[in-house]
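Task: sequence in, structure out. Protein: Pullulanase-type alpha-1,6-glucosidase.
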Amino acid sequence: MTPWTSGPRRSRSRTTTPAAPARAALPGAVALALLAAAGPIATPATAAPRDAALDLTVSRAQWIDRSTVAWTVRDPDARHAEVLSARDGGLTTEGGDVQGATDRIRLTRVPGGLTDAQRAAYPHLKDYAAFRVDPRDRDRTRRALTGQLAAVLRGPDGTARAATGVQTQGVLDDLYARAATRAELGPVFRHGRPRLAVWAPTAQDVRLDIGGRTVPMRRDAASGVWSARGPASWTGKPYRYVVKVWAPSVRKVVVNKVTDPYATALTADSRRALVADLRDPRLAPKGWKELRKPPAAPLRDARVQELHVRDFSVADRTAKYPGRYRAFTDTRSAGMRHLRKLAKAGTSYVHLLPAFDFGTVPERPADQARPDCDLPAAAPDSEEQQACVARTAAEDAYNWGYDPLHYTVPEGSYASDPDGTRRTLEFREMVQGLNRAGLRTVMDVVYNHTVAAGQDDRSVLDRIVPGYYHRLLADGSVATSTCCANTAPENAMMGKLVVDSVVTWARAYKVDGFRFDLMGHHPKANVLAVRKALDALTPAKDGVDGKRIVLYGEGWNFGEVADDARFVQATQKNMAGTGVATFSDRARDAVRGGGPFDADPRVQGFASGLYTDPNGSPANGSRAEQRARLLHYQDLLKVGLTGNLAAYAFTDSSGRRVTGADVDYNGAPAGYAAAPGDAVAYADAHDNETLYDALAYKLPPSTTPADRARMQVLAMATATLSQGPELSQAGSDLLRSKSLDRNSFDSGDWFNALRWDCRDGNGFGRGLPPAADNKDKWPYAKPLLADSALVPDCERIEGASATYRDLLTVRTTEPVFSLATSGQVQRTLSFPLSGAPGETPGVLTMRLGDLVVVFNATPDAQDQRVAGLAGTAYGLHPVQARGADAVVKSATYAKGSGTFRVPARTVAVFRRG
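Result:
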């Protein structure tokens, strides 16, 4: 079995990429041929064409600052080059040269290539040749950047030896970023009058299309910002920018009518931006200004429920506003009642899957397609349901939303009226409703890519400053390792957009936290700039305490930026100690076993019966191999329970003294955290099969419904009872299933909707999962879905939830689960049986201050004798002793020998005294 990490997604899907540095087989943020099998993207040096090519359809030269052009040329005799420009386009390669230029900028080759400073700023260009812009021509740079560009390399005789297009991100930053990053963009109100501003330094002209008329905009030469100030009557009016600009993707000058990247409100389906002042009291619900939030916990204590806005209520018969933001204001609905139960037990945050404006759902209900089949009538293992859902998937009301269109406007399909500012009011009502239920709100933000680029109708950024906001590869094409058009937050104005957008959500919508999708594709510096900007927000000045806002994200390491190829990334290892957490896949993999791309999904892990309750699959290996892998998994879980600390020292299952960083995770260190708040623990999330579905594949088919429920709780407990923050997918405590769908991003309500009423089942047996991502698993899925015993009854569903809440209560009421430093963990937490002759495969025993926690994942009761505790009194924790799980109440402790006896498939917490 090869460990795997969550990574890129296909279309809006969430698949997984290999853990770096080992690029091994894997299993969640897109498969796109799993990013070309997750293989390394060619470096510019290896991807460069022969110098003799005159090809203006690609852009292999990079103008990195006002004085330097970098280019992959290898011709030692070519000392001179030039950048040709044509304001209206029309450069051609005819007669062995480039024709049609209206201006030229002379270049001279620099011996030795780029400077050390330039190589540090552009490490992926370190082997490029450097050409210095003739100082006499530098005053023509700004003008040249507004037209088509071509770099031409010339031999001693003046003949053209190579020609290519030119990437300009670096020189645009050098020329404009100092002033532009200080500019206020989008709609800004002063004394009731709006000013609209957009950064478009390469545009030849920008006008404002507002309320049916066209208004000229003024260009600021220093910043490249175009702006227009209007009367108060502009408020509420729809507008677009009309941008005349050279577009490399179509190789011509175009006139784009495009919405505002800094829009704060939109018409339906994002056709127009709206001039809106988010400070307008008419856009705020009653009590918004005085809103009192639940107490903020440190990030290390965050207990998070990951939740999709539509999933939450669309199938809830008790909800007044199914599928809407306002469903979170309905205090009597089943969903809100359940969230309040979780909040009472210790859940502190609801993490909302993307709720900004995204590009794949028609926002008006009348335009949303619906499956035209009798879905409930089909058999539980039928192909009919998925086929019917697939026919309308592209136009229905459902998508996870990982396809950003406008970053700083709420999604319209969740509002009662998408055409206007109701979405602003109702998003705020949602935040208010969650806060009043005792829960803070986290937004899932996706600044690493956009739904489209180039001249696509849904492309916003690239139709305003073509070739700037997206990360380009060596040939000038847009990188798509995240699934879609990758953005480039390393470029100053994309980085500014990230910071400005997050600050707006925090200040104007009182969002309490942000989860960064594919955060490893951001520079570490960009994420720390977000942290710094949030820290500057104060209740007196901004209405929020920015220092209490939590940040975490996916620190996966892959794609064209992997291994800090272009900048220091916001990856797991790099973010340790920064106060920004990253998801830890180590313990997740160990507890589940295998991954979604395993040819046989029955590969087992700690909580799915590996070695202790084998399911018969040959994919699990021999008995000896299973035992060895299980003991290694137990080491991964030990590291996970410490908060994934790199420096934590313990005896591993082989008896060696190691640190968390010494434990192997697919060729990488298992422990990478510097403090307990650095790593987010989880057993399942929206990516990949739900935990219940993974266990359905992996547990032996004969496993009883009661035992399946117990293993679900045990798996969740490995995250719940760890040091540091923990996340679980909403409904996991209710044994939530998506009918074995590993990638439900576009699978509609049928496969995704949460069912709060246990009489409606848990979602299992709703047909074979969609063929696009699951057909190869249908032979395994079909007999499971046909087995009615796998649909849990109310006793199992409600019992699992209540048992999970008991463990959550233990975690949040015992201070030893909230240790602040690595040193405190080292002194307080130990694994007394690790590596000892008595370490039992399938059982973990953790001592934590006055507590002893035993995770028994085996099908039999187990005795765990800790000789050093003999004579010390322990008893089952009071929460469990009076709690919902009758089985755990039979756990015992023998004081004379220090032996803890724990029932099968049970987590028992004992307290001294």
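The first helix runs from residue 32 to 38.
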